[in-house]
Structure formats: C-alpha cells, structure tokens
C-alpha cells in the first residue's frame, strides 16, 4: 500500500493579509523589498509545510479506549521473525478488552492499520494479512526499505515492545453484487498483503459464489517472495478450487532448479502474461473452431473484469498507469489501457 499523509496548510486569509503588504514595485526600493519579502515568505511557508505536525499526529493516545481510527491504541509486539533478506513477519497483539464489540467487528474487506513511529512522530499504513483474530492478534509482512522510516523502526523493535496503532481504515470494499465475472489482482512485493487479506476474508470462505478470482504476484527473486505459509495456502486453495481461484507467481530471474521446485514463471507481469491468464479463464480452449473455417484465436472480453493493482509505483504505472495527483487514481494507462479496461474497472491500492 502507498503511504498516506495529511498536512495542514495556511488559511486563505493569511495569504490575503500577506498579499496586501506587498510594496509597490515601481521603485528600486520597492523591488528590493519585494524580492526580500518573497524570499522570507517562501522560507516561512516551506518551514511551515515541512515542520508543522501532520493532522494525524494530533490524534490522541487512549490507553483504555477500544480500537478506533480516531485515536491511537497501545499494543504489544508478540512475535518478530525474519522472512527473507529485508523482511519480517511481525505480530501485534491488542488486549481483547480493547477490541470492538462482536457486532462491530465486521471490518471492511480490505483495511489497514496506521502504525506510529514514536521516535519521529510519523505514521504509515500497513495491511494485516489475516485481519484481527479473537485474541486481538494481527500479523504483518513488513519490508525494510532504505527510505522507509517506519519500516526500519519496526524492524528494530523486539518482542515485548509497545507501539501505538489506530484502525481500522478502509482501503477497498468488496461488494458481492454480481457486477463482475472476474476479479484480477496484480501485486508486487509487499503489495500482496491486501489481496491476501481479501483471500482470507472473502475468497477462501466462499462468500462470493459467482465471481472468479485471479492473483498474479511478482517479486524480483525467490528470496524476496512472500512467506512460505502464505504461498502454500494460496497454491493449495488454487489447486483444490481451479474454477474459483487461480494463482501465479512471477520472478525476474531464477535457475532451472528453483523453477522446477517452486513452479515459478520467469519474467514480469506484462501484457502477454496477463492476456494468457485471462484467456485461461475466459475460454475453455485457446482456439474457437467453426465448421469449414480456419481456427480463430479467442478474444478476451474484459468488460466484466475488475482489476486491482498494488505494489511499487513503477510496477503500478506499467500495469495500470501512474497514480494521479496526491495519489489519486489517475487515468488508466499501461497494460490495462491497451487491453481496453476503463477507469470503472481499475483500482490502484
């Protein structure tokens, strides 16, 4: 998931007051005053933007309040295991008495938790892989990036340490209204987390009886793949329910032994790979044959297909077009645009 941050900005009345004090530029002295004033004003506004606290930083910490997106709740790290060269499986536990009431625990189908780094007072969203269980446990697959302050901070924490979270915050809501024949989820890196949450909460439980799902995941190398228990569960369910769920894993490179052992696809998720998996679902065979005519290759109709994309920004841009301004959805581009998908069929998490 992409990071979310909300910053307070100066009011328009402040700008009007500042504008009214601009000197007359007709004289040399006025020009000098105008230049100096502009520099000082720019510096002040830049400092305001960089150092004024985020709105989220003003959210209070309520130690005995139930889990809520409006305030921070203390929780404890109960497990932290290495998983690959730059990732860890981290489990947080919220006291059961702080969980919402049973009739309020129907969280959105894809939701996130905001974790606050107390050292620098910054928060970032992370997706619990299997939601929250009755014991208040939430598991996260968290990668450590060079410029990821909160991720590096979490990697430094030990079992028993206390951190603060606020949740749940809805990322995307699944509606089983029979609008879509297919839902294709495309992920890269830790972007698989929201789709695994959807798998755990919706797909594996047979909540939707009509829609078919496909999950295409990409990692740079086998060592950077998601935890094995996640891959095994997805693969097993796909093998047992091929009419309902398909799962494909792609890596940039690997040797022949790894390919045979892990059944991986070499290469990135491009138009050819996506089209191939859509064909497998859309037609029973690669060719449509008519009497006394040459074989005609089956065409893919994506009008009843929903595409969900989550991963690093370069991957998202290549598959579905870049995010818009301030991480809005932006127009559909990339591979999905060439397949004919529209903005109503594509959602970038």
Structure write-up:
28% of the residues lie in helices and 24% in strands. The protein is α/β, with parallel strands linked by helices and 349 residues long. The longest helix has 24 residues, at 28-51.
How are the SSEs placed, and which strands pair?
Elements: H1 12-20, H2 28-51, E1 73-82, E2 87-93, E3 110-117, E4 122-126, E5 137-143, H3 149-156, E6 162-172, E7 182-188, H4 193-203, E8 212-219, H5 228-240, E9 245-251, H6 256-262, E10 265-266, H7 271-282, E11 287-288, E12 296-297, E13 305-310, H8 313-320, H9 334-338, E14 346-348
Parallel strand pairs: 7-8, 7-13, 8-9, 9-10, 13-14
Antiparallel strand pairs: 1-2, 1-6, 2-5, 3-4, 3-6, 11-12
Unreliably modeled segments: 3-23, 44-56, 283-299
Question: Roughly what is the average pLDDT, rounded to an integer?
Answer: 81
Q: Tell me the structural class.
A: alpha/beta
How is the largest sheet built, in terms of strand order?
A: 4-3-6-1-2-5
Mass-distribution shape: globular
Distance linking N and C termini? 6 Å
Gyration radius, to the nearest Å?
A: 25 Å
Roughly how much helix do the residues carry, as a percent range? 25-40%
The sequence of SSEs as H and E is: HHEEEEEHEEHEHEHEHEEEHHE
Keywords:
349 residues, alpha/beta, six-stranded parallel beta sheet, 28% helix, 24% strand, globular, disordered N terminus
């Amino acid at each position: 998931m992409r990071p979310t941050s909300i910053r307070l900005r100066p009011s328009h009345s402040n700008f009007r007051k500042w504008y009214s004090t601009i000197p007359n530029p007709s004289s040399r002295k006025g020009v000098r005053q105008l230049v100096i004033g502009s520099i000082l004003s720019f510096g002040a506004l830049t400092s305001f933007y960089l150092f004024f606290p985020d709105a989220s930083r003003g959210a209070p910490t309520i130690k005995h309040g139930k889990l809520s997106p409006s305030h921070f709740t203390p929780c404890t790290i109960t497990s932290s295991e290495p998983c690959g060269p730059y990732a860890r499986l981290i489990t947080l536990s919220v006291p059961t008495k702080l969980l919402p009431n049973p009739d309020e625990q129907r969280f959105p189908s894809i939701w996130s938790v905001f974790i606050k780094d107390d050292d620098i007072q910054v928060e970032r969203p992370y997706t619990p892989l299997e939601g929250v269980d009755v014991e208040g446990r939430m598991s996260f697959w968290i990668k450590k990036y060079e410029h990821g302050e909160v991720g590096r901070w979490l990697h430094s924490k030990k079992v028993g340490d206390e951190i603060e979270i606020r949740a749940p915050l809805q990322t995307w809501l699944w509606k089983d209204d029979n609008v879509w024949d297919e839902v294709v989820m495309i992920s890269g890196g830790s972007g698989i987390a929201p789709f695994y949450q959807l798998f755990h909460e919706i797909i594996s439980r047979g909540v939707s009886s009509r829609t078919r799902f496909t999950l295409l995941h990409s990692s740079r190398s086998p060592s950077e793949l998601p935890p094995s228990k996640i891959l095994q569960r997805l693969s097993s369910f796909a093998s047992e329910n091929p009419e309902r769920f398909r799962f494909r894993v792609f890596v940039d490179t690997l040797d022949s032994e790894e390919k045979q052992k892990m059944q991986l696809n070499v290469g990135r998720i491009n138009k050819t790979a996506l089209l191939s998996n859509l064909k497998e679902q859309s037609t029973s065979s690669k060719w449509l044959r008519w009497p006394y005519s040459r074989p005609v290759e089956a065409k893919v109709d994506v009008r009843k297909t929903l595409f969900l994309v989550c991963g690093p920004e370069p991957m998202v841009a290549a598959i579905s077009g870049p995010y818009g301004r301030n991480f809005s959805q932006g127009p559909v581009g990339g591979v999905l645009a060439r397949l004919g998908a529209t903005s109503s069929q594509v959602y970038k998490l």
